[in-house]
Amino acid sequence: MGKWKLRDYIETIGLGFRFTRKYFVSIFLAVIGVFTITIGLFLLIIFIGSIPLSTVYGPFDEIFDVFDSIGDALSGVNNVQAVGIVLFAGSALFAPFLIALGALFGLGQEIIESGNADAEEALHWYRQKFSRLAAGGIAQFLFIIGPIGMEYIIAAWYYGNQEVDSSSFMILLIIAIGWFLFSSGVFSMVFPSIVDGMSVLASIKHSVNLARNNFSAVFSIWITFASLGLLLLGPFIAQDLADFPVIMGQWYELYIIAVGLLIGLILLPVYVISASRAYLIISDPNIQQEQDIQTEGSQ
Amino acid sequence: MNPVKAPHPMKDLEIITDPNTIKVLFDKIRAVIVFKYLVNEEMTVKQLADALGKNPGNVLRHIERLKSVGLVQQVRTEKTQTGIVQRFYRATAREYRLGIADMIRANGGIKTYAKDRLRSMILGLEAYGVSIPETRMNDALSILEKLIERENQISSEIAIINEEFWNSLPTHQQEDASRLMRDVMLTRDEKYLQLKDEWWSLVTSFQKTQ
After folding, report:
1. Min CA distance, A92 vs chain B (Å)?
2. What is the CATH number of domain B11-95?
3. Handedness of CA A201, A202, A207, A208 (dihedral sign)
């Protein structure tokens, strides 16, 4: 495997920002393009999903009422079935977003390998790799969320009708977050591998091997961006999920919009470019350093 | 396909038998990438894009497709001064030929293409005064198919051992060396010589004397 040094880490993150700035227009258009298609696909999935659900819960007034019926379905089943419903519905609903993310990795590899970016290419990757990216994304989702669902089932079985005390809840939460961060890191090279032409199964194996043999490379990049993302989403998590107000009034809504744009248009492209570069470096055991500046004009 | 694996030595000749591979090469840009550039030298996506006048992303997707069917492989990776990580790609063989027998066994258009190709080769002998009648055409097609297959099989087993030296040779010298080596290997093969005899007998029996 390729060697990964502190210098590579700094250089990779720096290049992620530099290339995002340099090709911002192309990246911006690519993000807008793939996510527009994604939203369309997402709505289509909701529409298709609402057809069988409406036969059970009656016709929906609005398309998003489908989420209410999923909530109804969850309240009337046991814990194992609930986890199954969450995994199934989550896979279907997240798949379009994961395909979009995978398509951006195609653009990321193009930028790192040739020093060029074309917004249209992201759409080509989206179309060409649609099924593999969807299958790879769903597989990652199940591997990452599945064990958290198992933890929920075990905890629900262990505690029964008893209320979970705060320290036990905190331990369960830390385990879940820890697994989420660890497994997401392990699978963070799946999309670059699919873009590189591998099958879904080979990509998963490759990603696991890369993470095992190049732990510092894979996790230094992943943890950096996961931490930045969590930091930006911190006030949202505290306010909406933990009911602990941090930002008041209309500033909160503005903050959410600003964070959404920052993550979607800056942090995500920088991460994709950085992860693509890390992938190209660590996936070749005999990587060389160029001796003369022969591709100076390539950027 | 897996970039972790070390590249295989370049073959002198590879026989393409998989219909999927043939379909991949029906794309003109992919065919040019392989037959014009990557059989001769290792190149990066950027270099290929410049040579073809295409977008690097477009070339990258073609390369990925060619890698997936084993026509192209990644040979090395290099970090440039500008931070780009460029991969060098090369064809897996110096020359490719279509496996006639496999194509004939295939279905649909490929089978028809292969049969038409063999027939046109035989009809072309008319220029040398060789006119094979329709009654013997099937025999001629069968012998020629076997002969080409055997020649391809023997030739494809020849590996380029010293790749660095090979790459330093001009194209005409590579072609000469390749032809000489194939000749040596073919003249040692009993089955090939037997088929050659059959072919020679058939062709000369229908050759008009001047």
Report:
1. 27
2. 1.10.10.10
3. positive
